[in-house]
Write a structure and sequence with these properties.
Blueprint: E1 12-18, H1 25-33, E2 40-47, H2 51-58, E3 66-71, H3 77-85, E4 92-95, E5 101-102, H4 106-115, E6 120-130, H5 153-157, E7 169-171, H6 172-178, H7 189-200, E8 202-214, H8 226-238, H9 244-267, H10 271-285, H11 289-303, H12 306-319
Parallel strand pairs: 1-2, 1-4, 2-3, 6-8
Antiparallel strand pairs: 4-7, 5-8, 6-7
Helix pairs in contact: 6-7, 7-8, 8-9, 9-10, 9-11, 10-11
């Protein structure tokens, strides 16, 4: 057990990036201090927060279990997490975002489950989406949840696996072998890393909600398309790491991702961006009948007036 002197590394390094969010940060940090498992270190990487947030973080420096890494503002979640990872000394790495909350037994239960599965080097838990006040969102009762563990790479590509960053616990060895967060990505860098972990190790699921993911206005990126761009980068990059069967899966998912991006642009009535997304994907999509079929529909939608589209939506709603 770590005695707090700093001479013996803690078993678990908790990585927390932050940029302001002072209204949520104390609760997130408090949920680490409230853990029943106590052999941890907390590494906070501050991405150039304003003075009030930095003042609060300075108040934590006296605690030997807390390390603060100060950064100039990057706006890159991947770079901020990686800065904290460089200071991590634990055998295991856990992630917690500065607006989310762990349940008190999260580390205790997850670490025990992970250590019981010798073939697994990483783990994730179920989670609950809450509002800015911490109350469960009404739509949670309808959210699709598929418990997935073992070799989950293919199921991740099919969109069956729901992994949130604060639910992940991974060995430092696996993280070192897989590489850290891809700093060239502005969004979806967590999904990119989970896929790389899944290529190297089976995963164990603790099917118990031990994390509360907070939804609020500040955590929605204004650049919504960056997630699609990030996933395209991942699907393209990973093709050189996998066998032909999985390469084919990655290519197909890349096509579908491009279609989703173009469709979202069309929904937002941005015809030029919808066409641009389709044209950019032509070089790797033209062999797929799905791209031609759905792409044609997307182009047609950009020409139709809104009242015609609304009529189609209402008719389809009556049919279903």
């Amino acid at each position: 057990m770590n005695n707090g002197s700093g001479s013996t590394p803690a078993l678990v390094s908790v990585v927390m990036p932050t940029f302001n969010r002072l209204q949520f940060l104390p609760a997130a940090i408090g949920s680490v201090f409230n853990q029943t498992f106590t052999d941890w270190e907390l590494i906070i990487a501050d991405d150039g927060s304003e003075a009030r947030t930095q003042e609060y973080l300075h108040s934590l420096k006296a605690n030997p279990r807390v390390t603060i890494t100060w950064m100039s503002h990057t706006g890159s979640p991947a770079a901020v997490r990686n800065a904290a990872l460089q200071r991590a000394r634990g055998e295991y790495i856990a992630f917690l975002d500065s607006d989310d909350i762990w349940e008190n037994r999260k580390l205790e239960l997850q670490l025990a489950k992970l250590r019981s599965r010798k073939q697994c080097q990483w783990s994730y838990t179920a989670f609950t989406n809450v509002d800015r006040h911490g109350d469960t969102l009404p739509e949670e009762s309808r959210r699709r949840w598929i418990p997935c563990e073992g070799d989950i790479f293919d199921r991740m590509l099919r969109g069956e696996v729901s992994i949130r960053t604060p639910s992940v616990l991974v060995t430092r060895l696996l993280l070192s072998d897989s590489g850290a967060f891809d700093e060239s990505m502005r969004s979806a860098e967590d999904y990119d890393l989970w896929l790389r972990l899944a290529l190297r190790s089976e995963v164990v699921l603790l099917d118990q909600s031990l994390v509360r993911i907070r939804a609020h206005q500040e955590n929605h990126s204004a650049d919504w398309s960056s997630a699609y761009v990030g996933q395209d980068h991942t699907f393209k990059k990973l093709q050189s790491y996998v066998d032909p069967q999985r390469r084919s899966m990655l290519q197909r998912e890349r096509v579908r991702n491009a279609l989703k991006l173009a469709s979202e642009h069309a929904t937002r009535r941005s015809a030029a961006n919808a066409w641009r997304a389709l044209l950019r994907s032509l070089s790797f999509s033209w062999r797929y009948a799905e791209w031609w079929k759905r792409g044609s529909r997307i182009v047609l939608r950009t020409f139709l007036p809104e009242y015609v589209l609304e009529g189609f939506r209402r008719r389809r709603g009556r049919v279903t």
